[in-house]
Design brief:
Blueprint lengths: L1 H9 L2 H21 L6 E3 L5 E5 L5 E6 L6 E3 L12 E4 L1 H8 L4 H7 L4 E4 L9 E3 L19 H18 L16 E3 L5 H6 L5 E3 L12 E2 L2 E2 L13 E7 L8 H11 E10 L10 E2 L1 E4 L2 E5 L5 E2 L8 E2 L2 E2 L3 H8 L2 E7 L13 E7 L2
Parallel strand pairs: 5-20, 8-9, 8-12, 12-13
Antiparallel strand pairs: 1-4, 2-3, 6-7, 10-11, 13-21, 14-19, 15-16, 17-18, 20-21
The structure holds zinc ion.
The site of zinc ion (ZN) has 8 residues, from loops.
Protein name: Methyltransferase type 11 domain-containing protein
GO molecular function, one term: S-adenosylmethionine-dependent methyltransferase activity
InterPro entries: Methyltransf_11, SAM-dependent_MTases_sf
Amino acid sequence: MKQTTRALRALSTKQRGLAAASLLALTLFIFSRWDNDGPEYYGPAVGLEGFEDDDGGYSYGALELGATSRQPLQPNEMCSWDTAQEAITFDKAVEKDGWPTKYEHMISESRALRHVFCPVCGAHDQVIRFPNRNLREEGRCSKCSSFNRLRQIAEAALPEVQRIAGIRFNSLKDLVQSNLAIYNTQCAGVLHNILHEAPRYVCSEFISTDVSAGSIVHGVQHEDLQRTSFNDNTFDLVISGEVLSHIPSPYQAHYEVRRILKPGGSHVFTVPFSPTDLHDQVRASVEEGRLVHHIEPPIYAGDAIHKNGILLYTIFGKETVDKLCMLDFNVTTHHLHVGAHGIIGKNAWVFVATKRV
Ligand SMILES: [Zn+2]
């Protein structure tokens, strides 16, 4: 006790004030948790607010409370990047072959990848050429025209469908033989061309805010991924390639995807992702689903429906994994490097968010 008193005296008034404030904050925090099971999420308005820890870390505690139904979120359901399941092959390749890996090195010398198996269409012995350094969006399969990033989605999706269906599929094309309920968030492009004959395949596009969910416009189903027309627990597999980054409230969309996935079902997706950034870079602010102003200079991506392109709202950082875990997903991050399947380049990240059973 004497030692404690002496230690207290040694503190300046400011330090004592800080210590008292910390003690008060801790007491209030413990009190606030006393008769709660944990932070609660009130759907459907999703807003995850992160805050900096004193030690420089980052965590989530303040969930924006909005609307009606209560869905308690237990603290032990939260996870971090470290605890989310990871599937890293790129790092192993760098460890084995050095940087640049032998495949990237071959590309830098303008040489093609040979004897490639395409996990999208199942074609063997492909010669994959990369006409420029945009490795992620290049390297076409001569049979199905899939490029690097689409093969990454296939590579990550195939183990998921094997787990869900209990059958091994060699390529996405084989899913046409399956009875899986598949939702593609795009109605154009190579993956649509490959999958659209599957018996329980559904696709949609975002057409306009003036169109109601589920409407068919010129033969295409309109859905806003933040609020779709699908029933709960409908799909085994949801696929989205570079879609979430163009949605004003991407976590609202993730929450909606969770609703329409069956328990154990997976959302396999790619987004613009910066693995060295902790935080998502929000590039435009939105209120009630409408663009308010640009925080960063606008970037527009080409789109099959919208001729002027679609705005990039978010470039995702590592916090996206924490946020998905908080939305009750198990998350697997794939950092791929599978030269034999035409998958190269250090930006080969694919996320799998599986709805917890
Ligand atoms: Zn192919």
